[in-house]
Amino acid sequence: MPHEFDLHTHTVHSDGTTQPEDNVLMAKELGLAGLALTDHDTVSGWAQMRDACTRHGLVFIPGIELSTERDGRSVHLLGYWVSSDDGPLMAECDRLRNERVRRAEQICARLAELGMPIDIERVRAIAGDAPVGRPHLASAMIEAGHVEDIQDAFDHYLADDGPAYVPKYAVDPVRGLELLRAAGGAVVLAHPGVSEDGGGSVTPALLDELAAAGLAGVEVDHPAHEPDVAARWRALARNHGLVVTGASDFHGERKDLRLGDRTTPAEVLEQLQAAADNEMYGKVSVSPAAR
Ligand code: AMP
Ligand code: ZN
Ligand code: FE
Ligand code: FE
After folding, report:
1. Test site for ligand 1: of 196, 251, 257, most ligand atoms within 8 A of the Cβ
2. Which of 76, 173, 190, 274 gives 20 to 30 Å between its CA and that of 42?
3. Could you tell me the CA-to-CA distances from 44 to 35, 116, 128, 183 in Å, in that order?
4. How far apart are CA 12 and CA 10, in angstroms?
5. What is the pLDDT of residues 276-289, one digit of tens each?
6. 109 lines ligand 1 (CB under 6 A)
7. Which residues of 129-266 form beta strands (DSSP E)?
8. Are 276 and 284 in contact, with CB atoms under 8 Å apart?
9. Cα(231) to centroid(ligand 1), Å
10. Is 133 in the pocket of ligand 1 (CB under 6 A)?
């Protein structure tokens, strides 16, 4: 697989289970030219992955997966080559993280009412440096013996319509897009055809809005997109003249997705980088000679 890139991977810096270097080693093993780190609402893993990429001769693509929400449905935006010292974007990420701790406490209280007490400190320990999310709460529920597995926890308690669900604070997708663009990033709409939270997929109308606001691409090739769903979004992306990307959304052990399962070729990555407006990063070098 020459000159292919995995543009969406997670680590322990959000809700993945691997270290940045593990992802780099997996990418290298697969013969990928490079990979992006796109942890949720944080850039805290960048330095580690950049170092590992340098050591192993891969191209590092700095990214972030920003959580936004419209009409109670979560919409994820991938921002590539954003400045890690952009004040407004980092302030928004801090706010998202702090609100998540408060929300986790509220979910714990609900679970206690439901006769399933879990220790918030244990939840925070499981999350480590990562923003606290429902998958961490689910892990704590398993440890406490309340549920069999993660899916059980979501199906009966934590899903959006579940009895222990508490909504989280989030910005509107258009505002999120503007924040990422203002930080110099090229923005890609993540997995529009899957509902991570059971709320349904992104609507074509929202894609219209995002495209008008400067969206650069759509993550069409994603492991959770069935072929017909991918075909539909490929056509929508084409209609808007948007870049079409592929990526694995690797989360380590927490989700059944393999790194490198979907990839993006070098030519497409170059188109994407042309949409970024950030002098902090040089042009991505995709030629094998440069590696
Ligand atoms: P949070 O950001 O805390 O709302 O958690 C969102 C994460 O929970 C998503 O990225 C998924 O990994 C997971 N998740 C959400 N809904 C479900 C569901 N119905 N079944 C399994 N996992 C889910
Ligand atoms: Zn995730
Ligand atoms: Fe996502
Ligand atoms: Fe993701």
Report:
1. 196
2. 274
3. 16, 33, 12, 16
4. 7
5. 988 888 777 665 44
6. no
7. 186-189, 217-221, 243-246, 264-265
8. no
9. 25
10. yes
Could you report the per-residue pLDDT of 110-141, keeping only the tens digit for each? 999 999 999 999 999 998 877 789 999 999 99
Indicate the length of the chain as a whole number.
291
- Does the global pTM surpass 0.70? yes
Nearest CA among 35, 44, 49 for reference residue 13:
44
Determine the atom of ligand 1 nearest the C-alpha atom of 133: 3
Supply φ then ψ for residue 165, to 5 degrees: -75, 135
Q: Is the dihedral of CA 28, 31, 34, 36 positive or negative?
A: negative
Burial class (CB in 10 A: 0-12, 13-18, 19+), 25: middle
87 token code pair? 């004040």
CA of residue 223 to ligand 2 center, whole Å: 14
**Residue among 13, 18, 57, 10 at smallest CA distance from 36:** 10
289 CA → ligand 4 middle, Å: 31
Structure tokens at 259: 């790194």
Residue whose structure tokens are 């170092």: 51
Surface-to-core class of residue 210, CB atoms within 10 Å of its CB (0-12 exposed, 13-18 middle, 19+ buried): buried
Per-residue tokens: 196:
């991570």
| Alpha carbons 213 and 33: distance in angstroms, whole number | 31
Nearest residue to 110 via CA among 90, 91, 134: 134
Residue listed under structure tokens 């408060």: 102
What are the structure tokens assigned to 175, written together?
Answer: 């505002």
Distance CA 212, CA 143 (A): 46
Cβ-based neighbour number of residue 139 at 10 Å: 22
